[in-house]
């Protein structure tokens, strides 16, 4: 069995964001397929690592991305555990991966979640060209690159000149293997908990709300989409969930009389995904795959998204569970909410075969040797 080390440069146990959840589940399922060790930051809850060995070797300091001592700590672990393959999450510790590849004779894999420089370009960061050069260099040093979507894979090959043979599709995964049967019960439970009318159409938006693409999407829901809905006969409730809503929004209290409510961070987000009649994704920047969309569809909920927001997901697998409209066309977005939206149509079986984490990690095992 292969001995693999994954290096994660930020806390993910417990997880709160889609990126953290990706790493947590990727490691969980991969640990069931190989002898996995994970080197992470000291502020992780190591007791949550069930299928692998967790090593708290990265400090919490913001300078951990340029910590020369990290190389020696990781090198010692590789020698002691006879690690043969090293995965790094994101390209940021690419310098470390390069040193380990050069001096420890390991196979180096970079597990990408986005085209990072493009993500920062779309949210207006002026230093994105420097990141582009660094990211491109890191990917070229790797023996293998795990790409989260076919769009990202093509981008790396065509625009970053990464060898096609080493770019492997490893999508964001799900735990479910079939469409849930308890959506009606979930909606009744959520409506009862928050005092909503269960006969209303329940519209959900979720995300880290201090992240600019998500905050911009929330503003669109409030200022554009809901403004249209208020002038229709639709009986509906818009529920916003997620951490870190900026204080100036005052928990959206000013919009409660306009059918918009804020529930904050919810422990069981899967319950809310199942409860929703529609998941709204009016995101127009940030790049990468919107992991919450993949989860919502897995839990039987139809997603309504902008074209940009739907990037990275295999639309053919989604069938009628993914509806898209052009970016900035909020009138059409609102009109789509008014339609039936295939609420009771089950998610296609092929979707689960492709996105189930167990299937994903089994397929990548040959790439670890």
Task: Write a structural description.
It contains 14 helices and 13 strands. It is of the alpha/beta class and 369 residues long. The protein folds into 2 domains: 3-175 and 356-368, Rossmann fold; 183-353, Glycogen Phosphorylase B (Rossmann fold), CATH 3.40.50.2000. The strands form 2 sheets. It has a 7-stranded parallel β-sheet with strand order 3-2-1-4-5-6-7, sandwiched between helices. α1 (18-31) packs across α14 (357-364), α4 runs antiparallel to α5 (128-141) and α7 (183-194) packs across α9. It is elongated. The mean pLDDT is 95.
Largest sheet: 7 strands, parallel
Could you say which structural class the secondary elements and strand pairing correspond to? alpha/beta
Low-confidence stretches: none
**Approximately what portion of the residues adopt beta-strand conformation?**
15-25%
Helix-strand sequence = EHEEHEHEHHEHEHEHEEHEHEHEHHH
List its traits.
six-stranded parallel beta sheet; Rossmann fold; 2 domains; single chain; elongated; 369 residues; seven-stranded parallel beta sheet; alpha/beta
């Amino acid at each position: 069995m292969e001995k693999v080390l994954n290096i994660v440069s930020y806390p993910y146990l417990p997880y709160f964001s889609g990126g953290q959840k990706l790493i947590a589940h990727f490691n969980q399922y991969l640990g069931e397929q190989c002898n996995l060790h994970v080197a992470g930051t000291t502020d992780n809850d190591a007791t949550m690592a069930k299928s692998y060995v967790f090593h708290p070797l990265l400090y919490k300091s913001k300078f951990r991305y340029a910590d020369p001592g990290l190389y020696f700590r990781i090198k010692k672990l590789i020698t002691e555990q006879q690690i043969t393959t090293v995965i790094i999450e994101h390209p940021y510790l690419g310098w470390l991966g390069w040193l380990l590849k050069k001096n420890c004779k390991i196979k180096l894999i970079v597990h990408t979640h986005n085209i990072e420089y493009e993500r920062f370009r779309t949210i207006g960061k002026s230093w994105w060209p420097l990141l582009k050069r660094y990211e491109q260099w890191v990917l070229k040093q790797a023996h293998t690159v795990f790409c989260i979507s076919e769009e990202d894979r093509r981008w790396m090959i065509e625009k970053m000149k990464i060898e096609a043979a080493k770019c492997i599709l490893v999508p964001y995964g799900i735990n479910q293997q079939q469409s849930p049967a308890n959506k009606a019960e979930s909606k009744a439970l959520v409506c009862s908990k928050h005092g909503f009318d269960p006969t209303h159409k329940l519209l959900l938006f979720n995300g880290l709300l201090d992240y600019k693409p998500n905050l911009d999407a929330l503003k669109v829901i409030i200022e554009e989409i809901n403004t249209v809905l208020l002038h229709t006969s639709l009986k509906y409730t818009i529920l916003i969930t997620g951490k870190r809503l900026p204080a100036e929004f005052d928990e959206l209290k000013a919009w409660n009389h306009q059918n918009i409510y804020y529930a904050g961070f919810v422990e069981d987000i899967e319950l809310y995904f199942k409860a929703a009649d529609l998941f709204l994704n009016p995101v127009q920047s940030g790049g990468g795959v919107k992991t919450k969309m993949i989860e919502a569809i897995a839990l039987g909920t139809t997603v309504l998204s902008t074209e940009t927001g739907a990037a990275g997901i295999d639309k053919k697998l989604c069938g009628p569970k993914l509806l898209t409209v052009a970016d900035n066309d909020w009138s059409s977005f609102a009109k789509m909410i008014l339609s039936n939206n295939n609420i009771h149509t089950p998610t296609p079986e092929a979707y689960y075969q492709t996105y189930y984490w167990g299937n994903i990690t089994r397929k990548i095992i040959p790439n670890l040797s």
